[in-house]
Amino acid sequence: MVNDGAGASIRTDAADGAGAGRIRVLLVDDEALMRSGLRLMLDGARGIEVVGEARDGLDALEQITALAPEVVLLDVRMPRMTGLETLAALRERGDRARVVMLTAFDTDEFLLEALRGGAAGFLLKDSPPEEVVEAVLDAAADRPRFSAEVLRRLVRLAADGGEPVLPAAGPGTASSAPAPEGITEREWEVAHLVAKGLANQEIGESLFMSVATVKTHLGRLYQKLQVTNRVQLAIRVLELGG
């Protein structure tokens, strides 16, 4: 048993072998209510197990050592040690836990520092539950995951402009530029909506296709455009004049 930093005890499944095959997650946030909400979203969802909670970075470092989580949901602003400081400490000691930054503050400064520090994802605190679950699954599979607003900011930064180069996303909006050679019109529509920050479900609703079909198009786009994630795809769309 390990203290969770908030007065409760957490069972160390890493030591007794329980929970095998599940994605082990540690929640780190100085607000108890936020931790409770995240636990409700995640614990038991699609093979995810919340193994502990921490209220600041110092507590988190101790619990990561004790609990060996695969994924850490880490708040940016906390007392004693911030999320960004915690991320830096984890990387300095060579910890392999994948970190998804979670914050109410979506400034470029936080975003860029988290990415440079090796964060596996960056979500806003008002992200819907399914997006939080997907972020954990993607992090465990070593796939980057960003909320729609964060992705839009990344695209803007990549374009080196002070204003977004793509219009705000909306239902039924797709690319007005012609598809590049080797890319079908449907694939290009999907690519353009990814660049606008839409999630797979939103793309499917916008283009009247299933999420499975959206994922199929994304797989083909990754291969054809030689990219490995949504951020790279969004930037490639900009480079191609999308």
TrEMBL record:
Chain ranges of the Response regulatory domain: 24-140
GO molecular function, one term: DNA binding
GO biological process entries: phosphorelay signal transduction system; regulation of DNA-templated transcription
Domain HTH luxR-type positions: 176-241
Gene3D superfamilies according to UniProt: 3.40.50.2300
Pfam family, one: GerE
Keywords: DNA-binding, Phosphoprotein, Transcription, Transcription regulation
Protein name: Response regulator transcription factor
Superkingdom of this protein's organism: Bacteria
Protein species of origin: Candidatus Brachybacterium intestinipullorum
4-aspartylphosphate PTM positions: D75
Record InterPro entries: CheY-like_superfamily (IPR011006), NreC/VraR/RcsB-like_REC (IPR058245), Sig_transdc_resp-reg_C-effctor (IPR016032), Sig_transdc_resp-reg_receiver (IPR001789), Tscrpt_reg_LuxR_C (IPR000792), WalR-like (IPR039420)
Keyword Nucleotide-binding: no
